[in-house]
Amino acid sequence: MKFYSAEQYQASCEDLFLQYGREIQNLLPNARIEHIGASSIPSAVSKGDLDIFIGVESFELEYAVQTLTSLGFQEKDDTLRTSELCMLESTSTDDVAFQVVANGSEFECFLAFRNELRANSVLVQQYNELNGLKMSTVKRSLPLSNTF
Question: What is the dihedral of CA 25, 30, 36, 41, to 10 degrees?
Protein backbone atom coordinates (compact mmCIF):
# COMPACT_ATOMS: atom_id res chain seq x y z
CA MET A 1 0.00 0.00 0.00
CA LYS A 2 1.33 3.42 -0.94
CA PHE A 3 1.01 6.45 1.25
CA TYR A 4 1.24 10.05 0.15
CA SER A 5 2.31 13.27 1.79
CA ALA A 6 -0.36 15.93 2.08
CA GLU A 7 1.17 17.90 -0.78
CA GLN A 8 0.78 14.92 -3.08
CA TYR A 9 -2.91 14.22 -2.63
CA GLN A 10 -4.89 16.82 -0.70
CA ALA A 11 -5.52 19.26 -3.58
CA SER A 12 -6.92 16.45 -5.74
CA CYS A 13 -9.13 15.26 -2.90
CA GLU A 14 -10.41 18.78 -2.31
CA ASP A 15 -11.33 19.07 -6.02
CA LEU A 16 -13.17 15.74 -5.85
CA PHE A 17 -14.91 16.82 -2.65
CA LEU A 18 -16.21 19.98 -4.32
CA GLN A 19 -17.42 17.99 -7.35
CA TYR A 20 -19.21 15.34 -5.28
CA GLY A 21 -20.49 17.95 -2.84
CA ARG A 22 -22.39 19.71 -5.63
CA GLU A 23 -23.85 16.42 -6.84
CA ILE A 24 -24.90 15.37 -3.33
CA GLN A 25 -26.43 18.79 -2.65
CA ASN A 26 -28.52 18.50 -5.82
CA LEU A 27 -29.86 15.12 -4.70
CA LEU A 28 -30.21 15.85 -0.98
CA PRO A 29 -30.64 19.62 -0.57
CA ASN A 30 -31.08 19.41 3.22
CA ALA A 31 -28.00 17.24 3.81
CA ARG A 32 -24.96 18.47 5.71
CA ILE A 33 -21.94 17.68 3.55
CA GLU A 34 -18.45 17.82 5.06
CA HIS A 35 -14.98 16.74 4.04
CA ILE A 36 -13.63 14.27 6.63
CA GLY A 37 -10.81 11.77 6.90
CA ALA A 38 -7.08 12.31 6.48
CA SER A 39 -7.48 14.30 3.28
CA SER A 40 -9.33 17.00 5.26
CA ILE A 41 -6.53 17.37 7.83
CA PRO A 42 -3.53 19.58 6.97
CA SER A 43 -0.23 17.64 6.90
CA ALA A 44 -1.86 14.23 7.37
CA VAL A 45 -0.38 11.47 5.26
CA SER A 46 -2.82 9.09 3.66
CA LYS A 47 -3.57 6.45 1.06
CA GLY A 48 -4.98 9.37 -0.90
CA ASP A 49 -8.65 8.47 -0.60
CA LEU A 50 -11.53 10.86 0.03
CA ASP A 51 -14.15 10.50 2.75
CA ILE A 52 -17.31 12.58 2.74
CA PHE A 53 -19.65 12.96 5.71
CA ILE A 54 -23.30 13.27 4.72
CA GLY A 55 -25.49 14.19 7.67
CA VAL A 56 -29.24 13.69 7.33
CA GLU A 57 -32.19 13.47 9.68
CA SER A 58 -32.54 9.94 11.05
CA PHE A 59 -35.88 9.39 9.30
CA GLU A 60 -34.20 10.29 5.96
CA LEU A 61 -31.17 8.01 6.24
CA GLU A 62 -32.50 5.07 4.23
CA TYR A 63 -33.86 7.40 1.55
CA ALA A 64 -30.48 9.17 1.39
CA VAL A 65 -28.61 5.86 1.02
CA GLN A 66 -30.86 4.77 -1.85
CA THR A 67 -30.61 8.16 -3.53
CA LEU A 68 -26.81 8.28 -3.32
CA THR A 69 -26.49 4.99 -5.18
CA SER A 70 -27.46 6.97 -8.31
CA LEU A 71 -24.01 8.59 -8.10
CA GLY A 72 -22.33 5.21 -8.55
CA PHE A 73 -22.01 4.14 -4.92
CA GLN A 74 -22.90 0.94 -3.10
CA GLU A 75 -23.03 -0.16 0.51
CA LYS A 76 -19.62 -1.13 1.74
CA ASP A 77 -19.43 -4.79 2.76
CA ASP A 78 -17.98 -5.93 6.07
CA THR A 79 -18.36 -2.62 7.85
CA LEU A 80 -20.56 -1.31 10.63
CA ARG A 81 -24.13 -0.66 9.46
CA THR A 82 -26.78 0.71 11.80
CA SER A 83 -29.97 2.75 11.58
CA GLU A 84 -27.73 5.81 12.10
CA LEU A 85 -24.75 4.95 9.87
CA CYS A 86 -24.22 3.56 6.41
CA MET A 87 -20.90 3.60 4.57
CA LEU A 88 -21.01 3.74 0.80
CA GLU A 89 -18.10 3.16 -1.56
CA SER A 90 -17.64 4.26 -5.13
CA THR A 91 -18.06 1.74 -7.91
CA SER A 92 -15.98 3.96 -10.22
CA THR A 93 -12.24 4.46 -10.28
CA ASP A 94 -12.51 7.35 -7.79
CA ASP A 95 -11.32 6.27 -4.34
CA VAL A 96 -14.22 7.93 -2.53
CA ALA A 97 -16.42 6.84 0.36
CA PHE A 98 -19.56 8.41 1.81
CA GLN A 99 -20.32 8.15 5.52
CA VAL A 100 -24.09 8.66 5.66
CA VAL A 101 -24.87 9.62 9.25
CA ALA A 102 -28.00 10.49 11.21
CA ASN A 103 -27.61 14.04 12.50
CA GLY A 104 -27.04 14.15 16.25
CA SER A 105 -25.94 10.51 16.45
CA GLU A 106 -22.77 9.16 18.00
CA PHE A 107 -21.38 8.81 14.48
CA GLU A 108 -20.77 12.52 14.28
CA CYS A 109 -17.49 11.36 15.86
CA PHE A 110 -16.05 11.56 12.32
CA LEU A 111 -16.41 15.34 12.59
CA ALA A 112 -15.04 15.53 16.13
CA PHE A 113 -11.97 13.51 15.13
CA ARG A 114 -11.33 15.77 12.14
CA ASN A 115 -11.83 18.92 14.18
CA GLU A 116 -9.46 17.81 16.95
CA LEU A 117 -6.69 17.05 14.48
CA ARG A 118 -7.23 20.24 12.50
CA ALA A 119 -6.86 22.22 15.72
CA ASN A 120 -3.66 20.55 16.91
CA SER A 121 -0.64 19.87 14.71
CA VAL A 122 0.96 17.77 17.46
CA LEU A 123 -1.99 15.38 17.25
CA VAL A 124 -1.52 15.18 13.47
CA GLN A 125 2.13 14.27 13.99
CA GLN A 126 1.13 11.59 16.50
CA TYR A 127 -1.57 10.34 14.11
CA ASN A 128 1.02 10.01 11.35
CA GLU A 129 3.44 8.23 13.66
CA LEU A 130 0.79 5.85 14.99
CA ASN A 131 0.11 4.81 11.45
CA GLY A 132 3.82 4.23 10.87
CA LEU A 133 3.83 7.07 8.43
CA LYS A 134 6.53 9.42 9.62
CA MET A 135 7.02 12.03 6.95
CA SER A 136 10.62 10.96 6.47
CA THR A 137 9.48 7.46 5.49
CA VAL A 138 6.57 8.33 3.21
CA LYS A 139 7.22 6.86 -0.20
CA ARG A 140 7.43 9.53 -2.85
CA SER A 141 5.47 8.76 -5.94
CA LEU A 142 3.60 10.65 -8.63
CA PRO A 143 1.03 13.12 -7.34
CA LEU A 144 -2.42 11.58 -7.21
CA SER A 145 -3.79 14.34 -9.40
CA ASN A 146 -2.30 12.40 -12.31
CA THR A 147 -4.42 9.36 -11.51
CA PHE A 148 -7.89 10.88 -11.23
Answer: 80
